[in-house]
Every structure is written in structure tokens, then in C-alpha cells.
Amino acid sequence: MANVETMTINMGPQHPSTHGVLRLVLELDGEKVVKAVPHIGFLHRGIEKLSEHRTYHQILPLTDRLDYLAPMHNNLGYVLAVEKLLGLSDAIPERAQVVRVLLAELTRLKSHLVWLACHALDIGAMTVFIYCFREREHIMNIYEKVSGARMTSNYFRVGGLSADLPAGLEQEIRDFVNEMPRHIETYEGLLTGNKIWQKRIMDVGVISGEDAIDLGVTGPSLRASGVDWDLRRDQPYSGYENYDFEVIVEQGCDTWARYHARLKEMRESCKIIHQALDKLEPGPILADAPKVVLPPKQDVVNTIEALIHQFKIITEGFPAEKGEVYVGVENPKGEVGFYINSEGGPRPYRMKIRPASFVNLQALPKMVEGGLIADVVAIIGTLDIVLGEIDR
Amino acid sequence: MTLQAVVEKLKAKFGDTVLDEREFRGEMTVTVKKEEIVAVCTFLKEELGFNFLTDLCSLDYLGQAPRFMVVYQLYSIGDHLRLRLKAPVEEADATIDTVSGIWSTANWLERECWDMMGIVFNNHPDPRRILMPDDWEGHPLRKDYPVQGPDREPYQGRIE
Fold first, then answer.
1. In 10 A of CB A195, how many CB atoms?
2. Measured in Å, how far apart are chain B's first and last C-alpha atoms?
3. Among partner residues A49, A335, A349, which is closest to B140 by beta-carbon distance?
4. CA A243/CA A101 separation, integer angstroms
């Protein structure tokens, strides 16, 4: 076509369906997207730079603020990396491992609920949003009982957990997880058979498995393109090898396939949570490493040794060996990794966070170009991005 | 294939290009000359199955030579292996060839690396800043860049 006049429009950063502060510059030929250029960085807080100036314990709260819909997963990736750096990986007590898996999977449910809620709302199905947030609120209450905070949990610690689960919470989680599959059926009942929903997401945002690997896409978005890869199974951490669950792979490569992949993943998460609750035995929650882990509060007020340890660890931090480690975990959005380079001393020399959303967002232009402008919103929703993690 | 076999094949193919190999906590790090980075990466992807570039970042060893180190985290989806590749970059010639032709993932990751550390990626398809504004001066993750930002007094409350 000769002499096609295109129009360039700006979408975001203040746009309800960009899930934060994402700005897209779209070049349009009528309703067709010719080119899409994402602009990011509006939420950049320099977390990697700040990490170089904080001790290992002090960095942990910063990781909550990456993917704020799945804070426990970021905590987990970070503490696993530090534990590997310290050579503590095998010293984590069983109870701490099980609680980590339990909460990580609850976090996955929570994150997927927000994904479904916002994805459906973006496309116009408002009812689902209300239902999903109702269930999310249950998980928020569990979060609050566990860590004292609804979103910035800061609960895991290098060496274990900051506190044990409060009494009676196990039953509450079990009740919730028993109910959850029924709720997922409700969401499916509202959406799957809905003709508008089908038309809006079938064959929209197609990306082949090959392209997805080339672009570094991870998580459910990759598995919905037919690539069978899940870090929980392929490079297990925190004892995931002891759980029986299925890695969900869909062949559709489109938004419809990603919708089904995530819903099925939520059911698998419920299965894992049940198993974790069965495995939960009383026991210590912190590794026996007095130079690294903070002593129990009870000891700090009663013994001078614990008080000295507490004081030294808080004021000086703990030194790590010279070396470098990378640990990746299967976040709800994809692989989140922490690369820590230590030159010795109580602070990392450099910490690089591998953000799942950042890399997944890079696939957006490929998915929207050639499609309709109305589908851009659906594709942003299906990629399930969080700008806190993209911009760091 | 094991990691050891990968390193052996790499050394057999590239010889002197491989400057160093190091194992720490079961993770293998191989340092190669930056001139050969594209050839090494192509070989790793095509012949040894490292089809996935997980991450790319850089380190600043201020006061040492060479000052910078570009770090590639590679993953093989077939064999479930991780390999870390490093390439030293001097301050006077802070450039390295792009690997975005091998893995498209590298496009944004290299942009971030340029933005944060000021390393130029030759032949990069889209060499713009990514996180900082386009008119920003300096590269925040360099060790000589103050943590509180330029032209501001350091925070006095910190005990160093």
C-alpha cells in the first residue's frame, strides 16, 4: 500500500488498563496497530543501587516492593539466593521449607486472582472483578495474620522465617483452599461460555513457543505457548520436588490458552497447599546459624549472649564469602531471579534482579503489532505485568 | 550434557578466548574475551543448547582494570543447565558487541545495561535509555555515582 497515513497515539502512563504506569506509543493505520513502543521507568526507585548500600537483612523489605502482588515470592527468591551464597541452603529446617511453599502457593493464588480480576475488567466483565477480590481479601487476611501486613509481607528471613504461623491459621487456610475450587468454577461459569469473552480473547495476542523462548518469556505465558518448563519441577527449591503437582502446558499460544493455563495453575496451587498443610509438623523455623539469623525475641530479653548476637547482626550485618550466585524462582508471572555478587563483607557488591514482567513485556510489541487497537488492552492484561517489578 | 562437558567443549573450540572458569556453590562461571562474545554465544546456543538468555547485567570494579564486566546468565531448557558467562570491558573502550541477534531478550536487557552502567553495545538495534529519562546524565549503577543522586548532600543519618 502506498501513501498510507498513520496516526500516532499515546496510551498511558495514566491509563486504567496499563496496570500501573506503562506508556505505550501506538502507531495506527485505522484501527490496526502498525507499531507499538513501550516506555517504562516511571516507577524506578533504584532498588539495585540501594541494595549495594544495605546489609543482607536490610535488603529484604525492598524486595516486597518489586512485584507487590506477589511479595512472598520475591522474598523467597532473595532469601534463597543469600542462603546459597552463605552455603546455608541445606540447613533450612523442614517446617520453614513447608511454610515457605505454603505461602508461596497462596501468593500465586492471590496474584492470579488479581490477574483474572483486572483482565476481565479491562475487557468489560466487571462482575468477575468483584468475585476475585472477595477471595483475594481472604488471602490478604491470612497474610495479615502471618506477617502483620497485607501487601508488604517481609516475612521470610535468611535462614528461615521471621515468626511461626499463628495458632489456628492452618485450619483457616485449609477451609479457604477447600472452598477455592468452587470459586474457580464460578469464575469459569461467568467467563468461559461467554461469547463476548471468547471473541475478545480467542486468537488474540498469538506468540509461538519458539518466539516466546527467543524473547525470554517465562511463566504461564510461556507454558501456554506449548513449552513445558517450570522451575518448581525442573530446578526445585524449598522442597518442591516432594510435592505432587502437574505443570500446566497449553498449546493454543493465544490469550485464550493463557487464560486456561492460569486457571488450571490455580487449581494446582490448591493441591500443593493441601499437601503442604499435611506435611506441616511442629519444629524449629530458623536454621542453626547464630552468626546469621536473628535470635528468638524471647532469648534476646532473657540472655546476654542472644542480646549481643542481635545487636551485632543488626548493626554490622553478617559477612558473606567472596563469590556469586544466581537463584531463579517460579513467580506467578514467570522466572524472578536474584544474582548476588559478593566481594566479601556484609553488603552485596552488586545485586541484579531478573524481573519476569520486564522481560515478558518485551514480547508485547510482537503480540500487538498487526492486531486491532482494542486488543492491546486484552494483551496487556494477559501478560500479567506489574510495573513495580519492571521499573524496580 | 553436564556443565563440565560444556566447559570442555567451549575450551576445545575457543582455546585462548576462555580466560577463566570458576565454580562456586555448584554454579559455573566462564570468562571470555569480549571480542569473541558473539561467536561464543552463537556456539553456546546453536551447538550446546543454551537457547534461553535469562539475564544480562554488568559489574563495575571501580579502580581496577578492566573496570567493567558484562554478565550473561544462560539457561538450557533441554538440559536444565545454568551457565554464567562473563566478558571484561575496559573503561577506555567501554563497548561490547550486542547479542540481541542471538537472543531477542538481550534487546531490552542491553538497553538497561547501557542506561545503568554506560556500556555501549555495538550494532544494537535500539540503543536508547530504558529506565531513566532520555535526557538523564550519568549512569546510576556506576560505583562513582552517588546513591542519593547527583547534586545532593549525602543522607547524614546512616552509620557506615
1. 7
2. 47
3. A49
4. 10
B55 and A87 within 8 Å at the Cβ level: the answer is no
pLDDT of residue A182: 92
Predicted pLDDT at B36 = 87
Question: B73 vs A354: CB contact, 8 Å cut-off?
Answer: yes
pLDDT more than 90, % of chain B:
26
Q: Do A148 and A229 lie in a common domain? A: yes
Residue of B nearest to A81 (CA): B25
For chain A, what percent of residues have pLDDT higher than 90? Answer: 34
Using an 8 Å CB-CB cutoff, list chain A residues near B55: 326, 337, 339, 352, 354
If you average pLDDT over residues B85-105, what whole number do you get?
90
Please tell me the pTM assigned to this model. 0.89
**Cβ contact, residue pair B104, A352, below 8 Å:** no
Residue with the three cell numbers 496497530: A33
Interface test with A, best of B20, B29, B51, B54 (most A CBs within 10 A): B54
Same domain? For A15 and A82 the reply is: no
Residues A265 and A379 in one domain: yes
Which residues in chain B are closer than 8 Å to A359, comparing Cβ atoms?
105, 108-109
Query: How would you list the strands of the sheet with A350-354, edge to edge?
Result: A322-331, A334-343, A350-354
Contact of A357 with A369, CB cutoff 8 Å? no
**B157 has a pLDDT exceeding 70:** no
Reported CATH class of domain B3-104: alpha beta
Q: Among A108, A117, A110, which residue's Cα sits nearest to residue A269?
A: A108
Subunit contact B140:A41, Cβ cutoff 8 A? no
Same domain, A21 and A55: no
Residue A2 falls within a domain, yes or no? no
Q: Using omega within 30 degrees of 0 as the cis cutoff, is the peptide bond preceding B125 cis?
A: no
Torsion sign over Cα B93, B68, A213, A25: negative
| B25 contacts in chain A (CB < 8 Å) | 84-85, 87, 323, 325
d(CA A320, CA A286): 18
In this prediction, residue A264 carries a pLDDT of: 92
